[in-house]
Amino acid sequence: MKLAILVSIYGIFMLLCILLLFPALRGALPGRRKGSLSRSGFLILLLVLLALAFPLIGALIPDGPLDHFFQRWGNVILGFVLYFFGMLLFVELFRLIRKLVTRRKGPWARGPACIMLILLLAVTVGLNIWGVRTATDVKVTNYRVAKEEMDLQKPIRIVLIGDLHIGVNSHQKIYEDMIARINEQDADLVLVAGDIVTSSFSAMGDPDTYSSIMKKIRAKYGTYVIYGNHDVDEPLLGGFTYDGSNAERNPGMAPFLRDCGWTLLTDEVTKVGDTGIILIGRRDESRPGDGVKKRADMALLMEEAKARGEGMYLLLQHEPSELEQLSDLGVNMSVSGHTHDGQLFPGNIYSRLTANQSYGLKKWGDTDVVVTSGVGFYGPPLRIGTISEIAVIDIQ
Predict the structure, then answer these.
(1) I need a labelling partner for 300 at 20 to 30 A (CA). Which of 18, 76, 105, 231 fits?
(2) Quick one: which of 201, 149, 133 has its CA closest to 363?
(3) pTM (predicted TM-score)
(4) How far apart are CA 355 and CA 305, in angstroms?
(5) Burial 198-223 (b: 16+ CB within 10 A, else e)
(6) What domains does the chain contain, in order, with CATH numbers?
(7) Which residues lie closer than 8 Å to 310 by C-beta, 6 or more apart?
């Protein structure tokens, strides 16, 4: 039933795109009869319809090389479609308002229609080129917190990364650059806040190549990782799953993380060497995976953490959730990812207005919360209005 609903919604979206494009194409490429569309115009509409079908095909066929092909190009097409048809919608709304105000009716004139379509295409191509470059340029964001607030006796440098989203649109270079940025920091501890893949382990293609890249991370006290909501195998259509109830962890995930040289925490508590840090790694709230229906209660995890002794209680969780409770429980710091800081404008504005914390460093009572925008991308391989980053947290 959910699949039928999602397919219907996406079908309506495809139809709306065609209806938006038709008047402008009819003006730019008129047919022989007044008000008709030329054969070349109909061919363009057909090609647009086929391109729009790529994400749908990628969602419906079984996981495998053909599926990955349609997903890869479907994501690229979605990035183009979102901005081209978004701007076209505003143009048509403006024309509608002008018609209502001036009471002037009439189709697109050929000259303005051609200019408008060329301009929208140029702007959309420019935005996508900019978005790809931004998405693959890993930045370093620095935060500083007083060690006295964290109950630590000596300074420590933590590097936080998250949302790698290794998948059909990934390139090894972005992760090689990520490792280079991390190793430049001379980190004491590296934390990975989940979403290593994008709902398909096989879409990684060559796990051995990626693990050989990841194991090059240098950190005095090692690298710790948790799972995110996309670290399960489940089908996606436009970012939404229609079979999430059966989402299961791919059996290759845990061995892959071991090959990376990372320590996996699944609702577990551990002391990090002699740093004074007691690290709590939580399962994801919506996709705990591994046959677990519900992740462990935070209060119980904190009881276990306090039983390990005094120090800095550091929470690593994928989604920045239950933030209001953390201070009362005694958590000194919580670090997360998940939000991508909205990833694509205007999603970044919406995310910052609606989420408890979409990005950056913020204090919740006595708890410092850091949310990273992440390294990878979800869906379209673009970042517009946000950055790909590693977050460096200096506790001094």
Answers:
(1) 231
(2) 149
(3) 0.94
(4) 28
(5) bbbbbbbeebeebbebbeebebebeb
(6) 2-134 (no CATH), 139-395 (3.60.21.10)
(7) 151
